[in-house]
Amino acid sequence: EPEVTQTPSHQVTQMGQEVILRCVPISNHLYFYWYRQILGQKVEFLVSFYNNEISEKSEIFDDQFSVERPDGSNFTLKIRSTKLEDSAMYFCASSELRAREAFFGQGTRLTVV
Amino acid sequence: SQKIEQNSEALNIQEGKTATLTCNYTNYSPAYLQWYRQDPGRGPVFLLLIRENEKEKRKERLKVTFDTTLKQSLFHITASQPADSATYLCALDVSGNTPLVFGKGTRLSVIA
To answer: Which residue of chain A has the CA closest to B103?
Structure first.
């Protein structure tokens, strides 16, 4: 069964450093998303991406965040200068069509120290 | 303000019984409502989607209802098993063209 894969599974970084989280969405899906979940809290939307551009972003997705689809398969989230409060699980998701079920990856646990 | 509330943080039931989880929302008019399962340290897994013009949807032991007047969805697991123990998330898609907004989830424990 096709799945969304994310790497790395766990990343520890120093405050102020840049991190890149990587995702390979399901191949025939057209919509890609990043969500995050701070420990014990709800899953929060960050950004959606369609047709090689951002289609929507939340207030959380400020200038320190960026997304890219550098080739036909990868979808990345870059955090330019990490803060302690960026520590969370980051989930990539993809969907075939806009109003359909989203398929989530297993997440990257980001720890900023 | 807009809110999604799932009835309780935790729900314990006996194996074999029906688990009923509630999702209430305010100041939304969702076109779709979805339910996901999340195991500790893992990503959400899609279970069911119900549209605003549908009253009920079933899949195996799962059933979802959607009452747009009450602004509520109920999620039922019949003949529950210990393997059903997980956190269940309700998610709204407001217009069919917006990202999912998640509730905080209900942690279900099925006791053998």
So the answer is: A42
pLDDT tens digit sequence for A29-47: 999 999 999 999 999 999 9
- DSSP string over B56-106: EEEETTEEEEEETTTTEEEEEESS--GGG-EEEEEEEESSSSS--EE---E
Cβ distance B4 to B106 under 8 Å? Answer: no
- Residues B99, B84: contact at Cβ < 8 Å? no
Size of interface A-B (CB pairs under 8 A): 52
Q: Does A105 sit within 8 Å of B97, measured CB to CB?
A: no
Q: Which phi and psi angles does A38 have, rounded to 5°?
A: -70, 145
Question: Contact A107/B105, CB-based, under 8 Å?
Answer: no
Which of chain B's residues have a Cβ under 8 Å away from the Cβ of A109?
41
For A78-110, the pLDDT digits (tens) are: 999 999 999 999 999 999 887 688 999 999 999
- Cα atoms found within 13 Å of the Cα of residue B37, Cβ hemisphere only: 13
